[in-house]
Amino acid sequence: MISFYPGPSRIHDEIPEYVMDAAREGILSANHRSEAFVQLSRKTIGLLHQKLKVPKGYTIFFTSSATECWEIIAQSVTKGKSYHLYNGAFGQKWFDYTQRLRPAEAIPFDLEDVLDPSTLSNVDDDDLICITQNETSNGTQVSNAVVRKMRKHFPDTLIAVDATSSMGGIRLEITAADIWFASVQKCFGLPAGLGLLICSPRAIAKANDIGEKAHYNSLTFMIEMMNKWQTSFTPNVMAIYLLMRVLEDSDHIDKVHRKVSVRYELWLRFLAKRKAIRHLVDKNSVRSFTVLPITATPEVIQQIKTAAVKKGLLLGEGYGNWKSKTFRIANFPALKKKEIKKLMKFLEKY
After folding, report:
1. At what angle do helices 337-347 and 253-272 cross, to 10 degrees?
2. 322 forms bridges with which residues in the sheet?
3. Are 215 and 259 in the same domain?
4. Are residues 230 and 306 in the same domain?
5. Which residues of the chain register pLDDT less than 70?
6. Backbone phi, psi, residue 248, to 5°
7. Alpha carbons within 13 A on the beta-carbon side of 93
8. What CA–CA distance (Å, rounded) separates 340 from 267?
9. Which residue among 220, 249, 278 closes a domain?
């Protein structure tokens, strides 16, 4: 079965071999306070800086998931109120979770809208602006240019970005925001169970200023441990090892971005010729490069999903408000050209 599900999605072919290597090398039982783990952590973080163009001054942490990052950010970095700008289910989930912990305000916008920083007002320096860069539920994205505009509009306010379905697949302008986070089961082509949290020097300073220390994943504790290349909890050492191996074999993000972008354009040309199916989002400037939502009548959607499984193709279910009238296609780096061609051939008649 070829998985086009937008997370967890297709893993890299080499993962089984890497797992066997981990077993031979003793990684499966490595102590997370050992020198072996310290070297693994140091190397993996170094590769993330190198391959993803993460600036030298930014600190990278390992977490259990992107969802855990919501909690860390709410607990440890938000002194005032957080403002959540979103147009889909995952952005709303981030807001819903945060408001259980801290004062938060939802600022939803429409599917076809380009996020406008000027719509946000009364933001204080102690507040936090939260953006879902790639909305997995509906296949939209907030471009680097828009994140830069947000930074220019609010130079003294921390900006946090959920890049779960794009980090590792497209080029992100890390310096345009203070906090970025993602999970590895999407563009990194890995099994689920590991998250990444990237913090600017300003975010680190804010966490230390707030000094929140009530939780095992309080950022102040995480900072203290990462200064020793360690974690505040027993981490998924296997997943960190697999991430290291994948990064060693991966191209620089600029090259990966070009590859993903070319495939995205191929999909757009292909969909433009179809009669029964089309891209859910009309405005090209807000379309995600890594998640393509395909819409049709509920009857056609169900027919396609059922027939696809028989052909060995796993498509992503529709999500939230678009559940019955869409399916989603991952455009992640681990997918092979021949696999994409197979799916296009299957969808040709629609």
Report:
1. 10
2. none
3. no
4. no
5. none
6. -60, -35
7. 15
8. 9
9. 249
188 token code pair: 């990194």
Residue 95's pLDDT is 98
**Domain end among 249, 266, 298:** 249
Strand partners for 135:
140
The pTM (predicted TM-score) of the whole model is: 0.95
Same domain? 208 vs 151? yes
Assess whether 59 and 166 both reside in one domain.
Answer: yes
Q: How far apart are CA 202 and CA 101, in angstroms?
A: 22
Residue with tokens 């441990």: 225
87 is written with which tokens? 């147009």
List the end-to-end C-alpha distance of the chain, in Å, as a whole number.
Answer: 21
- CA pair distance 168, 61, nearest whole angstrom: 16
Q: Answer whether 349's CB lies under 8 Å from 314's CB.
A: no
Its domain, for residue 134, covers: 15-249
